[in-house]
Design brief:
Blueprint (H helix, E strand, L loop, with lengths): L5 E3 L1 H10 L3 H9 L3 E4 L7 E7 L5 E8 L5 E8 L2
Parallel strand pairs: 1-5
Antiparallel strand pairs: 2-3, 3-4, 4-5
Length: 80
């Protein structure tokens, strides 16, 4: 598995803690997404969508900026 160096913004840290989204799930989403979308409002942001087997294959959406080093995770949530 490809390793990606990333950091979470303060907003992402709070949201991931509240939503019980682990760093492992975030890494899996950004290294092996099922689909990638460009953000409608900010083209510098990427949405990585990943179905999580442990969560009944719910879609995890991780929004990040890959132009920054390290990659900056803006937020993550399960799509409804």
């Amino acid at each position: 598995m490809l390793m990606v160096n990333f950091v979470l913004t303060e907003h992402a840290k709070k949201r991931c803690r509240r939503r019980q989204i682990s760093l492992e799930l975030i890494e899996r989403a950004i290294t092996n997404p099922e689909r990638i979308e460009i953000d409608d409002l900010d083209p510098s942001l990427i949405h990585a969508i990943y179905s999580v087997p442990e969560k009944e294959f719910r879609s995890l959406r991780v929004i990040y900026n890959e132009a920054q080093e390290p990659v900056r995770i803006v937020t993550a949530f399960f799509d409804s």
